[in-house]
Amino acid sequence: MLAEKTRDCLAQTALEEGAELRVSVIELRDLRPEIGNGLVSGLTSPELEKANETIAKADGVIAATPVFKAEASALFSGFFQLLDRDALIGTPVILEATAGTARHALVVDGSMRSQFAYLRALVVPTSLFAASEDWNDPALTRRIRRASRELWLLMKSRFTRELRSKNWEGYQHDYGSANSGDDIDLNTDLMKLATGGSAI
């Protein structure tokens, strides 16, 4: 609901400037099996590849999660762990979380912001958090409007496209050892078992 309110405010801001948004929604609950399998096996499914492509092409992202045990949900964190590490370079992002109590308000600027810093996203200054008591508070509406305007200004500037066209080679795109894993034989019995298949 928080993401939808933000999307609607962003769309209105764009409309006021003569632009029209095209919105794609990625429901992580629909990707539960793929996220679980991906975290265990390191392999991605066609559904995850499609979601990755959607995010990589986006001019801006609204990333929202409920809070579970003082952290972003496992689905949310797992999805972004599986995301191509280059997909969000320079992409403007609003970070959002909801919880039953205001005691979890720092989840967004704590664990979530650091995860998106690792992904080299451009997180807008205003993060959004809503506890149960916030939904009827006009202050939440004002924060949504402020964050939406921040996202719109970054999207409108075409910062991401300029950055990627002029500075892409300046980023590290490979991590880990010299052995990238490209030479791993996924057809061995052991690898089939590791990825959830069966070995005969």
TrEMBL record:
Q: Which Pfam families has this protein been placed in? A: FMN_red (PF03358)
Q: Which InterPro entries does the entry mention?
A: Flavoprotein-like_sf, FMN_Rdtase-like_dom, NAD(P)H-dep_FMN_reductase
User: NADPH-dependent FMN reductase-like domain spans which residues?
Assistant: 8-135
Q: Which UniProt keywords apply?
A: Flavoprotein, FMN, Oxidoreductase
What name is this protein filed under? NADH-dependent FMN reductase
Organism of this sequence? Gulosibacter molinativorax
